[in-house]
Design goal:
330 residues, Arc Repressor Mutant, subunit A, Alpha-Beta Plaits, five-stranded antiparallel beta sheet, four-stranded antiparallel beta sheet, 41% helix, elongated, disordered N terminus, PafC-like, Helix-turn-helix transcriptional regulator, CBASS_pafABC_assoc_protein
Length: 330
């Protein structure tokens, strides 16, 4: 067991205090820092070198107007936050993660801060976060506490439970949470459903009474979280699924179709496969038609027959109008 001496603890505390001072003001002279820390300017120089070793880019200027300045670096070193700054950062992330402004990055940052946030600050963060709201269309709102509970369960690999509507009633689900996935509209949890013995995705805004248990689990081999959830949202959730080969680059089609409406996979540089679902085959067929690209039906075979029926209807609808000068007659 390593024992940290009092001198080492004093040096660490002093270096952290020095870092906090450098983050508060643009430039400090050596004598100013020495006076604040109660040490000599030589000790300040040594502590500055310690910060540089840790990855903090502390620059030293000479002459009039010179001094020590904390600048940007290639990597992002740890930040030193006081209580008020920590409360403001976490509350802002909590308010944004469940709404339409922030997304997955906000929740990742929250789970990192959650590890080190002192217990004495948690109630202040919660009180401040509920006072912030957003407006406008966007992602379905989710209680930030729900997201944090699920994020902790994913991070700590512990089982989670929640109420979820199924067949007209709310049933309790027991899961091994794997990842939270955010789309342009909603938050989803990819988890292994222990009662159904299979992977499932759940909408976070439909959950109730979310809780994390203390029972730990060993992670299973999991599918790609984002791809699994996107395919489920765009296709498996509907009674009818369809696949098309579209004669356009995948990036072009992705710009035309929301990620929650279809999965677009490249097939070389000039073709792509589009997987989508809908309540009726005619509906999904019309949407692909309106993309404005040539396409072929891959699945299901019935969709090929719907194409011909739709073509006959379109020809019939335009039969009464005489061909214009730009119309090519076959």
């Amino acid at each position: 067991m390593d024992v940290v001496s009092g001198d080492e603890r004093g040096t660490t505390e002093r270096v952290l205090t020095l870092l906090g001072l450098l983050q508060q003001r643009q430039v400090w002279t050596g004598p100013e820092l020495a006076d604040r820390l109660g040490v000599t300017t030589r000790t300040v120089r040594r502590d500055v070198e310690r910060l540089r070793t840790l990855g903090y880019p502390v620059h030293a200027g000479q002459g009039v107007g010179g001094g020590y300045r904390l600048g940007p670096g290639q990597d992002l070193p740890p930040l030193l936050l006081d209580d008020e700054e920590a409360i403001a950062v976490v509350a802002s992330l909590l308010a944004g993660a469940g709404g339409a402004v922030a997304g997955e990055a906000a929740l990742r940052a929250l789970t990192k801060l959650d590890r080190v946030l002192p217990t004495r600050l948690r109630h202040e963060v919660r009180a401040l976060s509920v006072s912030v709201e957003s407006f406008g269309a966007g992602r379905a709102p989710v209680d930030p506490e729900v997201l944090m509970t699920l994020a902790r369960a994913c991070r700590d690999e512990v089982e989670a439970g929640f109420g979820y509507p199924s067949g007209g009633e709310v049933r309790r689900r027991r899961v091994e949470p794997y990842r939270l996935v955010v789309s342009d509209r909603r938050w989803y949890l990819l988890a292994y459903d222990l009662d159904r013995d299979d992977w499932r995705s759940f909408r976070a805004d439909r959950m109730s009474e979310v809780s994390a248990r203390t029972w730990r689990f060993r992670p299973r081999a999991a599918p790609d979280a984002a791809a699994y959830v996107q395919e489920g949202v765009a296709s498996r959730a509907y009674p009818h699924q369809a696949r098309f080969l579209v004669h356009a680059p995948a990036d072009t089609v992705r710009a035309q179709v929301p990620a929650s409406a279809a999965v677009v996979r490249p097939r070389g540089s000039e073709l792509c496969e589009v997987l989508s679902g809908a309540g009726s085959l005619d509906f999904v067929l019309v949407h692909v038609l309106l993309l404005g690209h040539d396409f072929e039906v891959l699945d299901p075979p019935e969709l090929g027959r719907r194409c011909r029926a739709l073509a006959d209807r379109l020809l019939s609808a335009g039969a009464a109008i005489p061909p214009g000068p730009d119309t090519e007659e076959s």
